[in-house]
Amino acid sequence: MPKVKFMPDGIEIEAKPGSTILQAAKAAHAQVGYACGGVCACSTCHVYVKQGFDSLSEQEENEMDILDKAFDVRASSRLGCQSKVGDEDLVVEITRESRQAWFDEHPEEREKHKVAGSSVAR
Hints:
By secondary structure, this protein is an alpha+beta fold. The protein has one domain (3-121): Roll (Ubiquitin-like (UB roll)), CATH 3.10.20. The protein has helices at residues 21-28, 61-67, 96-105, 107-110, and strands at residues 3-7, 11-14, 46-51, 77-79, 90-94. The mean pLDDT is 92.
């Protein structure tokens, strides 16, 4: 099974081909947001795919429309809820926006991960 590595924390998990990056993140307890529950209605699961981009499922129009609402979109941007794992290992960078959304969704974790001067801990 391919592995998905979440940066910057280096959390790594095996993912079943056909599962999404978001499903892998949730299973690994990686800090990827999912305010809409993973139904492609927000951009809080926005990630940058650093390795294995071409092995992911094709990007559909709905995902592209939602990505238009995300911050700092790049050529390597994908929504974790829409990106299905293929047969290659992935390295995924969690965007600042996504990590902030995760902390907003998990306020009990904020204090545990507070970093001086970080916007994530607010």
